[in-house]
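We include the entry.

. . .
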Amino acid sequence: MTDLPDQRIDLRFDDNRLVPLLYGEHDRNLARIETQLGVSLISRGNALTVAGPAGAADAARCALEALYARLQGNLPVGAGEVDAAIRMATAAPDPLARDQGLASISRPDFTVRTRRKGAITPRSPVQATYLQALAESELVFGLGPAGTGKTYLAVAQAVAMLTTGQVDRIVLSRPAVEAGERLGFLPGDLRDKVDPYLRPLYDALHDMLPAEQVQKRLASGEIEVAPLAFMRGRTLADAFVILDEAQNTTPMQMKMFLTRLGEGGRMAVTGDVTQIDLPSGVRSGLKDAIDILGGNPGMQPVEGVRFVRFTDADVVRHPLVSRIIRAYDAHETGRGGAKPADRGGTP
């Protein structure tokens, strides 16, 4: 974009009530756009001038218009939404994909409402597809790199369905696989040993519900956070069940988990097959399930099962995370290693 001639774009936003929300406190949203796109934004009340290289200036215009449309729909705009709008305005391969991406931010088809966070909306087209799948399907696999919102959005959907009475409880689980560390050497009893593995799930819960509500529902059993081994022999009816870090299950564990689904239940399985911590020679249960249930490209999934694949373009953490993921994948490819989707476990 920097090779294109400079461009000047004049924008005007009609609703004076929304302008401060668009610009952000002390114009922090504008500063974020300037820094990431290398443009200059000059505001005069509800008039805004964008100046910079043509491609960057147009991306800034698209991002600002999408964020303003979001505010017109009574949806919040913060740093995350600004980053998402910039990402959609610059990373899309063509104008149609860009417009679809920006529409998922400005006019989301699916919104999850939680007690603490309020409206949670997708920040990429794939996140929008994922939210739709979570709302409509009994079993959803969210596949892709860290930072794409796979677990966070699944927990949000689970909390929304619990608080509206669509399910009676939430069960959150992870396999307690050691990523280069030894569980037995951690201090304390069994709960003390496994809680560090489950901490990301607790963190997501506390993002969705007030702390006292989390503690109350944990104590009553409405919300349960437990290692995968605790799922054996149970039937989970009228529950929203989430299995996180599923790439670290064995095929037997995965089959055991999937067959816990009971009447009125929902399941979400999240994982990244490029981050398998199983011992060498042990096949990942997630890769096994993808093969058996029709999750590979060109295959027809088993009825009632949805597979949603995320990429580095969907990373909603710091923008550097996307670049790190791409750099690691390029390094693996450059040294003649396996494709990222094929690493870990046995073929």
Observations:
- The CA atoms of residues 24 and 160 lie 28 Å apart.
- The chain has two domains: 6-106, 112-342.
- The domain at 112-342 is CATH 3.40.50.300 (Rossmann fold).
- The mean pLDDT is 85.
